[in-house]
Amino acid sequence: MQQIETKKNLGFSQIEPPETPCSSSKCPFHGTLRVRKRLRRATLVSTKMQHSGVVRLSRLVYVPKYKRFKRVTNKISLHIPDCLVVQPGQTIVYAECRPLAKTIAHVALQVEVQR
């Protein structure tokens, strides 16, 4: 019997499924993992964990006392499916999903092309 390759539509028009197939059940395109809420972009900092990575989110927060902005940085752990090839320093598009581990509740969906 032939195995038919299926790619799920995630409901986001901006996200194209990767060309390389994978057999992971934690893949939102080829497995059973569902994503929710909105898409976010961040810079990948580390890929030292197996099938996971860390992204850095930077934003500006206004401090009324000094009438200035300060930079706030958060780090988020996320799952990287086998069908995505990523390197530290790249910009990643990711979304929230169910908890996959103690600290991992997000999944990478796409690598943005550098211009």
Search tags:
single chain, 115 residues, mainly beta, OB fold (Dihydrolipoamide Acetyltransferase, E2P), five-stranded mixed beta barrel, 5 strands, 0% helix, elongated
Describe this protein's structure:
The chain is mainly β and 115 residues long. It has a domain at 35-111: OB fold (Dihydrolipoamide Acetyltransferase, E2P) (Beta Barrel), CATH 2.40.50.1000. It is 0% helix and 44% strand. The protein contains no helices and 5 strands. Strands 1-2-3-5-4 form a 5-stranded mixed beta barrel. The N and C termini lie far apart (44 Å). 20% of the residues are buried. The model has no long low-confidence stretch (mean pLDDT 85).
Please, what is the average pLDDT?
85
Number of DSSP helices?
A: 0
CATH architectural arrangement of the domain at 35-111: Beta Barrel
Amount of beta strand: 35-45%
Give me the side-by-side strand order of the main sheet.
1-2-3-5-4
What kind of sheet is the major sheet? Answer: 5 strands, mixed, barrel
Order of helices and strands: EEEEE
Name the structural class: mainly beta
The parts where pLDDT drops under 50 for at least 5 residues are none
Tell me which oligomeric state these chains represent. single chain
Number of strands: 5
Straight-line N-to-C gap:
44 Å
Helix content: under 10%
Q: Report the principal-axis shape.
A: elongated
CATH class of the domain at 35-111: Mainly Beta
CATH topology descriptor of the domain at 35-111: OB fold (Dihydrolipoamide Acetyltransferase, E2P)
Radius of gyration: 16 Å
